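Lab manual, section 2.4: Encoding a predicted structure.

Procedure: take the sequence of the chain (594 residues), apply the prediction step described in section 2.3, and record the output as structure tokens. A sample record is shown.
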Amino acid sequence: MTEPKKKVRIGDLLVQNEVITEEQLMTALREQKNTGRKLGRTLIDLGYVEEDNLLNFLSRQLDIPFVQLRHFQFNNELVKRLPEALARRFRSIVLAEQNGELLVGMADPMDIFAYDELVRVLKQPVKQAVVRESELLNTLDLVYRRTDEIASLAEELEDELGDDAFDLADLSAESEAAEAPVVKLLQTLFEDAVQARSSDIHIEPDENVVRIRQRVDGVLQEQVMKEKRVNSALVLRLKLMAGLNISEKRLPQDGRFNVRVKGRSIDVRVSTMPVQFGESVVMRLLDQSEGTLDLSGTGMPPAILERFRKLIHTPHGMILVTGPTGSGKTTTLYGALSELNRPEVKIITAEDPVEYRLPRITQVQVNPKIGLEFATVLRAGLRQDPDVMLVGEMRDRETVEIGLRAAMTGHLVLSTLHTNDAISSAMRLIDMGAEPFLVASSLLGVVAQRLIRRNCDNCTAPYEPTEQEQVWLDAFHLDPLDVAAGFVKGRGCYQCSNTGYKGRIGVYEMLVLDETMLDALRRRDVSAFSKAAQRSELYRPLGHAAMDYAIQGITSIQEVARVTAMSGWEEPADQAPPTVLEMPDEPGLRGKGD
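Recorded output:
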């Protein structure tokens, strides 16, 4: 067992080994009195010593290992032996167990009081290791997920509810909210969701259990609670918070509220729906404290970004952003609005719902219950002298026609459409009942996009495609030089919740209509339009844009196949494979909402 024999002063050691001077030590000690921080952190902040140099020095002096947590594979059972409160208080984490001895990483291994307390709590011999404090704090957020606390609070709530738990009077707003287990459970649920970067929380009652599912990077992660009766209490509390009718359980309801989680303002959109075993609730989380991305932060490749910027600065016409729900369309449009938002430009939006509040922009919440549809808002908005109109979605023939005519009469119209790619979008407008000449006269361009998961930087490893995957890859006609370095894939670690992916990035294709395409539109010639689009020198299919990221190691080929579903796509026989677009080094797209 490695144990400090006596209290050793780190400052004296550093001076004795000529790492710092006596004068620097005295300056650091004075600064430490003012800030209350550890001496080692003070020396680092003052620039007297590099953090890695200090940690390596401590490792040698104390004869203990220096562990880099970023690449460490944690054992969940071992980590949980040390309660989270103590782990954060003493800046420590249990790393491994060998021969009855626990290896504990500490940001300050010379803190003998923390060491003694760790030995007392863990009830085993402890061997120290030194770790970076910044890595430790990030790791604690990842390994101490709130799943156990959620399960414990659910069990506590189940015991408290009893057999007649669903009496509304017993669970009304007048109850002691701060002490109510249901409130504690919700607080923990929101904290865990923010910590895990969730975009949605699903509460789903089943016959014998309640499922809590969180959407992280576009994929659901599930936790099952056996306490099925807590569902009604959770739904009731959420309805009260969202201002919904708590006595109505037969019809779907929508609402919203705002919560503060760890100093961050989170806007929560609530949707309830009656299901077989109760009411299902889905909550969309929007982090208002992050602000709205500008276009340069969306991750668009430079070539597409330049063309998109030219389009949105056109005085009139229609621009569509397409893709399935959750592909980041609204984020792209908000980025465009942020760039257009100037004192001399009047912007009106019709949204369902209004996700982010933007200054100077007139935002209208669509309300079908009172007849305030997209078409109604669009028609009224045109009488408000706008320069730019944003329509949340082209849902019906009336909205499409009004939008197209507005684009023809001197307004810039931005909107979304649920289609799979850019080429099918123009024809979809005609299928919805719009006259071909209107579409050809008004539509400027279409951006199709997806959000694709990034490989986790912490656990990325080389990956060799299977025979089946290789057959699929052959359809892309990849240049051998492009794939010479090989593909990579995340193996799964604590940093990425064992998924192999962390964060997302946008994948885009853009179609700018030229005269050949417009002529095909006027003739309703789908085949001619598609061929003209694919021959356009500015057009690059979505699947190829996603494959560029796989070639660069940003994502995996499995993720490309999952998101783009391009297995049947083939290059036109008379067209050479397009040149690979130059991608930005660090693109990023929040894209929580659609």
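Check your result against the sample. The mean pLDDT is 80.
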